[in-house]
Design a protein that fits this description.
The structure is a homodimer. By secondary structure, chain A is an alpha+beta fold. The longest helix of chain A is centred in the C-terminal third of the chain and has 15 residues. In chain A, strands 4-3-6 form a three-stranded mixed beta sheet. A two-stranded antiparallel sheet of chain A has the order 1-2. The first copy, chain A, folds into two domains: 67 residues, Winged helix-like DNA-binding domain superfamily/Winged helix DNA-binding domain (Arc Repressor Mutant, subunit A, Orthogonal Bundle); 51 residues, 2-Layer Sandwich (Dna Ligase, domain 1). Chain A is globular and about 55 Å long. In chain A, a hairpin with a 4-residue loop joins strand 1 and strand 2. Chain A is built from five helices and six strands, in the order αααββββαββα. Chains A and B meet through helix 4, strand 5 and strand 6 of A and helix 4, strand 5 and strand 6 of B. Strand 6 of chain A pairs antiparallel with strand 5 of chain B. The first copy, chain A, binds a DNA duplex through helix 1 and helix 3.
Chain lengths: 133, 133
DNA sequence: TTCACATTTGAGAATGATTATCATTTTCAT
DNA sequence: ATGAAAATGATAATCATTCTCAAATGTGAA
């Protein structure tokens, strides 16, 4: 009936692995494969359960990878909640936009459409300079 | 060995249904359910196969619905390839941005990051005026 | 430390979307 | 009408994810 979160070895291992791979989009099986050989490694069910819990806590963001045909999870960098991002469709590189680049658009859209952009969910897709060549 | 596309009754039915529902995100089973009672209705396998074909042709865009736990397909409106869109996270409403609102940002980003935004894939998420209240 | 109990885990079954298989049917150019 | 290529349907196979439930573990109190 309480709402206590037990600290188990499995959860620690999972979270540590995620934190070591903050920049990656991990599937449940990615994590399984990497913890596989360790003592008291978590089962796939535990991994899925804990990932969903972390999503609810806002620690992870859940996505879906067409290519992998599976859900992927990425670490939510709180510092990134303030600015927008460009994501290259080819190499996946993420560029953090300086605020001033976007602020004009935000206020224009607010005035004209009375629409409040969500800069956590919004991603601007395109092709980065390296991939153009 | 040829690349001919045969016109079959099943494909006509599927495409007609999609065109009647241009504004919706359809799953394969949505289509199945609606063609179900008709003569020579397509099987689920045919629907999946044809949907993927339409995606390859650029007629549909494939998405993934967390809620439905299934792939969804939406009609690609060619006219929308020229401008950006706002999408309300609550009601799903889509607002078509007038070009001038975005053009500033595009050139700023191009200059500063040498990044070319893809206005087909990019969607700006947020909350629309109606949902604010 | 030990107890009582809520929570978590693991193994495997169940689910459900999507894809593959392959024999049969249909399309269409000739 | 014929034949080759393409499409279809029924169903099996695949595979990610969720469910089930007995057993194990974490936690706070005594």
């Amino acid at each position: 009936m309480n709402n206590i979160e037990y600290k188990t070895k499995q959860r620690k291992m999972i979270l540590e692995y995620i934190e070591k791979n903050k920049d990656k989009q991990l599937t449940a099986y990615d994590i399984l494969q990497n913890l596989y050989l360790k003592d008291e490694n978590p089962s796939i069910a535990t991994i899925y359960r804990y990932l969903e819990k972390l999503v609810k806590q806002g620690i992870l963001k859940k996505n879906y990878s067409e290519k992998k045909n599976a859900a992927t999870f990425e670490y939510v960098n709180k510092a990134c909640a303030n600015h927008y991002h460009l994501k290259c469709e080819k190499c996946g590189r993420i560029i953090h936009l300086s605020n001033e680049v976007f602020s004009d658009l935000e206020s224009k859209i607010d005035k004209k459409y009375d629409f409040e952009i969500d800069n956590v969910k919004t991603v601007l897709y395109g092709i980065c300079n390296e991939c153009k060549n």
